[in-house]
Amino acid sequence: MDRKGQAGGWPAIAVALAVALFQLPLILNPGYFSHDELQWAAHATDPAFAMSVEGIWRDTQIFQYRPLTFSLWIWLSRLLFDQPFAFHAVLVAWGALNAAMLTCLLCRFGLATRPAVAAALVFAMSAFAVQTHGWIGTIGDLSWVSCALLVGLLAQRDGARWALVAGSGALTAIALLSKEAGIVIPALTALGWLMLGRRPAWAWATLGSGVVAALYLGLRLDAILFTPRTTTNYEWSAWFVPLRWAEYQLFPPMATRAGITGLLPEGFASPRVWFAGLVWLAMAWTFWRAGARWLLAFVLIGAAALGPVLILAESANQYGYGFAAAIAGLGAALWSRTDRTGRIVLVLAALLSVWHGVNVMRRMHEVGELQSRFSPAMAQAVSAADHYPVRLRALDPGQHWIYLRLSHQIHSYHGVAIGDRVQLVASDAPADYVIGKDGALTPAR
Questions:
Q1: Cβ atoms within 10 Å of 114's Cβ, excluding its own
Q2: Residue among 404, 397, 390, 376 nearest 35 (CA)
Q3: 2-49 pLDDT tens trace
Q4: Between the CA of residue 367 and those of 279, 290, 406, 435, what are the distances in Å?
Q5: Spatial contact of 395 and 436, defined as CB atoms under 8 Å apart
Q6: Which stretch of DSSP H or E encloses residue 130?
Q7: Helix, strand, coil tally for the chain in percent (to 5)
């Protein structure tokens, strides 16, 4: 890769505008995707909870030490929850900015404008990115990837040593205060140094981010690894690494699957998994034909961008956000170094990934529409009830999972206490209300 490229200013602006346009279904989502968004909206009106969030800046031994994310989340929930279009617009704009920064970074690597722009758009429209841009609970993922991209832009500027060390250290600290995944930044900068001709600027960026990461691990490693988990998805083991790694490789071409969670080993019998495996092998072959160094970059940089999520018991779409940016960027870098056959493979993989993202976007908009009707109806039913719990069942069994999420541990909704006063029952069980296919409630008797 060339040492210097164009700044990418106008292409980056065009990418940001295109992402905002393509993701209008996320912006125009009238509701929310999951229980955590509703939980934080309830917490935002509770002064005691707001004070507890302020206190987590000092409590570095809690499992999820994300004080910057949680503080921003509660502030935005207090400000924007009742205007979901505005709330979603903030996240999509943030995601568009990340795509614009990726465009700038690729241009500064010396890539031509077209492949840089295409890569940024493929990244932003991937299933990993779409869920991150459309779910309020992914603020931490948006933040740490922003910081990683800014570190890359800083390292590519060839500034003074002290500025590189201090800047990369500060950005890594912000990433780690947002989410633990920021720990991968030193690994990414080290690979940048190795793959980009051992340039001193990348070494200084690695030093700055590495010192901060080492201090963070010294302070937090025991809490991260050994704090008791409240949910099984955060359990960890080194034995999970091969399965998790394979899931993130296979998921992008699987355009009809909404979520990565539980993909393997249960999915080994699915034709979709084998098709996705063939697409990945074609990608790996394309990188290998450009040289062993390119195949190594394809494997190592992708794994580095995933980092600690590979040891977890479950994968999640938003965990692959940084991975999607890294692989899209590598694909753009390979474009000028491969032949017509290789380009066909890259285009096919990109189209499948974008199609996948569009399907995920449609699903998220659908869930938001259901939530916008269901949650107010649920609160009204609870408010009018003469007994608890109010039992609800979904008319469509395929929607049961949606309402399970939207009723899970919701403290209150618009001032109506919910908690354990609502129970979602099986579709063939007795109930007080039936949830229609549009999310509205009708009395069951």
A1: 11
A2: 404
A3: 344 456 689 999 999 999 999 999 999 999 999 999 999 998 888 777
A4: 30, 43, 9, 13
A5: yes
A6: helix 127-134
A7: 70, 5, 25
205: which residues sit within 8 A by CB, 6+ positions away?
Answer: 151, 154, 155, 164, 165, 167, 168, 189, 192, 193
Q: How far apart are CA 442 and CA 374, in angstroms?
A: 11
**H-helix segments, 385-432:** 400-406
Q: Report CA dihedral (184, 293, 151, 65) to the nearest 10 degrees.
A: -10
Alpha helices in 236-339 (DSSP H): 241-250, 271-289, 292-306, 321-335
Tens digits of residue pLDDT in 134-168: 999 999 999 999 999 999 999 998 778 999 999 99
Rounded Cα gap, residues 172 and 148, in angstroms? 7
Nearest to 333, CA basis, from 293, 367, 371: 293
pLDDT score of 251: 97
Question: 389-410: per-residue pLDDT in tens?
Answer: 999 999 999 999 999 999 999 9
Closest by CA position to 113, among listed 301, 353, 336, 349:
336
- pLDDT tens digit sequence for 251-284: 999 999 999 999 998 878 889 999 999 999 999 9
Residue 71 corresponds to which tokens in the numbers above?
């503080």
Tokens of 381: 């039913």
CA 61: distance to chain centroid?
24
Looking at the whole model, is its pTM more than 0.90?
yes
Q: CB-hemisphere CA count at 13 Å for 239?
A: 2
**Which tops the pLDDT comparison, 227 or 33?**
33
**Contact yes or no for 172/213 (Cβ under 8 A):** yes
